[in-house]
Amino acid sequence: MTPNPRVVQAFRSMKEIGISDEKVKPVLKKLLKLYDRNWELIESENYRILADAIFEEEDSKQEESFDEEGSMTDELLRPLKRTRLKTQEGLASSSHPIDSSNVAETILKELKVEDELIPRSLQQKSLESNVVNMRTEIQPASPQLQPPSPVPVLSDHSGRDKGKQKVQTRPNYKGKEPMSPHVASKGTGPENVSVALRIKDPAPEPIEIAGASASASVSERHTSCELATDPDEIPSELEIASSPLGEMQISEGNEMLALDALKKSPARDACDVENVEGNGCVVARLLNGSFNNHCSANGFVGNAEGEELVVSPQRHLTPKELRCLHDASDITKGEENVEISWMKDVVLHVSEIVSCPRSLVRVLVKLGEILLIPRQVFLTPDGRGWGLRTLEKLPKGSFVCEFVGEILTISELYARNREKHTSPVLLDAYWGLKGVPKDEEALCLDATCYGNVARFINHRCLDANLIEIPVEVETPDLHYYHFAFFTTRDVNPLEELTWDYGIDFDDLDHPVKTFQCRCGSKFCRNMKRSTRSKFATR
Ligand SMILES: C[S@@+](CC[C@H](N)C(=O)[O-])C[C@H]1O[C@@H](n2cnc3c(N)ncnc32)[C@H](O)[C@@H]1O
């Protein structure tokens, strides 16, 4: 039997950095199971997840053995830390031809690994060639409910000096790398260029508190929210503001709909589409409180460039429909009255982005938002403050929402947040390619004051159910991108939506301590560290 080259390569890469096959084998097996044989994920960033998991496994073993012995010093752990750094360096430069080995053959038998196709959604290649265009309307923070915390952490600045702006050093990652810009905008051409990023005039983000929670005053809610992110200090008012079943409702755009109303609302049947001058691309947008009846009639009707596209989202597309959508790529130019009557509604699956023409993807992504997948902000019962959950089952690959925030330079972000742990969600599309960007130049998102529901997405180490996908923004220099969140697996109704912020909980050099992670994941990076710190000598 021919060994699976992916298994072989995984072993080879690990060997390169001094990890024996025996250590790789069980962990690889677990990861394949955990990620549903999503090889792309395991292979991404030069097998970083695999290497990390192996080290984590080693950490756990060591901790267990030290637990038994009743003693442990940080010194004993440092070599691991160094190895890990070395790992990253080593991995970054490793690139080897695929080759077979006896070990791989054995493993292959054991793992019964098939060389199956993984969802394209997570393939970097697909991202490169199918970057989504979107327009963003930044909504200001609600005065009623404003998350006090900075944007979810993606990176950490160990070299940062509180007092002065410093040149950014490459963030110190352990959990994962920030979104690498190289997946964002390479290969996209000026044909898509138009300036679409805009910041709207401040107007309260529509956040509604339904049911009992409606009785909470604005100031109560504000205070509650401010306190809510300190896991140890959740005020009792929060129980009024939102029960664990979550009376609080959030909706986006110009529509504000309570849950029941939302489910029945024509907003789910119809939306309108706005043309973008210049390149004939279209962007769908909910009309302000009024819905076009004709929208729901035929599903998706596309006209010639510059004319209207009408979409009525109601359900997920079948693969066949997506193929049709792909075939209908001429819908964007020149064709008149192209009608896709089979499409009653759309929820974009990231795996299908690859098969959609760019302009339709743009529409679809926007529709994902317009769909108003019933989401709910709720109070987490375990001290993580507010969280976001879905009220409906979401198939793997569903678009959930974009991460919206103010665009700042990293310097500006740090100037704003001198006292709290802050790390930027980087937007510089060339980050990592052109070396380390300077704090004064590199752009990031800050959702503290202006944002959307994504602000309520809590962190979960490694096995979060959301993944962030960089989305190209139409700027001439392709310098920025947005983040769109998609589900990494099927998500059940009432399940919390989580995202791995990529925090390095080990970064002791950061001037401000991050929160203590309560994600509950068996891969939690922080729990291990905190357990470990009990044994540390310093
Ligand atoms: C972007 S906010 C998420 C919403 C937040 N829970 C709230 O109530 O506004 C990030 C903050 O949520 C809290 N948080 C998120 N994930 C957490 C986790 N796994 N464990 C503990 N706290 C968490 C931390 O206070 C963090 O600074």
Instruction: Determine the fraction of residues in helical runs and give it as a percent range.
Output: 25-40%
Mean pLDDT: 51
User: What's the arrangement of strands in the largest beta sheet?
Assistant: 1-18-19-13
User: DSSP strand (E) fraction?
Assistant: 5-15%
- Biggest sheet features: 4 strands, mixed
Distance between termini? 53 Å
Distinct small-molecule ligands in the complex: S-adenosylmethionine
What does this structure look like?
Residues 140-190 are annotated as: Disordered. InterPro entries: SET_dom, SET_dom_sf, WIYLD_dom_sf, WIYLD_domain. Pfam families: SET, WIYLD. There is one protein chain. The protein has helices at 5-16, 21-34, 39-69, 74-93, 102-111, 124-129, 218-228, 237-241, 259-264, 319-327, 350-353, 358-370, 410-416, 525-535, and strands spanning 133-134, 137-138, 198-199, 207-209, 248-250, 272-275, 282-285, 300-302, 309-310, 338-340, 375-379, 386-390, 399-403, 406-409, 425-426, 443-446, 458-459, 466-473, 481-487, 496-499. The chain has a 4-stranded mixed beta sheet, with helices on one face. The chain has a 4-stranded mixed beta sheet with strand order 11-12-20-17. A 3-stranded antiparallel beta sheet has the order 9-8-10, with no helix packed on it. It contains 14 helices and 20 strands. It is of the alpha+beta class. The protein is globular and about 55 Å long. It is 30% helix and 14% strand. Helix 2 (21-34) crosses helix 3. The chain starts with a helix and ends with a helix. Among the domains are: 5-118, no CATH class; 255-351, no CATH class. The structure holds S-adenosylmethionine. Residues 147, 149, 152, 228-229, 231, 384-387, 455-456, 458-459, 515, 517-519 line the site of S-adenosylmethionine.
